[in-house]
Amino acid sequence: MMKNLLKKALKLFLFLFVAFVILCIYAYYQMREHINAFVAIQKSINEANATSLEKEYGTSDKEKIFNRLILKYLNELEEGEANVTH
Questions:
Q1: Structural domain of residue 50, as residue ranges?
Q2: Which of 51, 49, 53 is nearest to 64 (CA)?
Q3: Which UniProt keywords are present, listed alphabetically (predicted)?
Q4: Dihedral in degrees, nearest 10, Cα atoms 70, 76, 81, 82
């Protein structure tokens, strides 16, 4: 009796684990374009020197610049979706 219960619990766990992995892979492919955009923004900020950041964005704080560029990206994305629906 206990062995059957343990086998069923193991099968349920394996099924849920596989479903979770498939869901994670699906989510990654749905978000891949946005993830790549965030990585490109971060890479461009990290490669820039402090003086060019100061000149272009008015600050050399990379975290503030990253947040500003991410918000800009999300706003542009939202505006693009609004234009498609109207």
A1: 2-85
A2: 53
A3: Membrane, Transmembrane, Transmembrane helix
A4: 130
The pTM (predicted TM-score) of the whole model is: 0.65
Helix residue ranges, H only, the chain: 2-47, 50-57, 62-85
b/e sequence 40-65, b meaning 16+ C-beta within 10 Å: ebeeeeeebeeeebeeebeeeeeeeb
Q: Which residue has the tokens 């542009």?
A: 76
Is residue 70 a contact partner of residue 38, using CB atoms and an 8 Å limit? Answer: yes
Element (H, E) at 60: none
The whole-chain average pLDDT of the chain stands at 89
Chain Cα centroid distance, residue 40: 12
Number of domains in the chain: 1
Statement: residue 86 has pLDDT above 60: no
The distance of Cα 52 from the centroid of its chain, to the nearest Å, equals 27
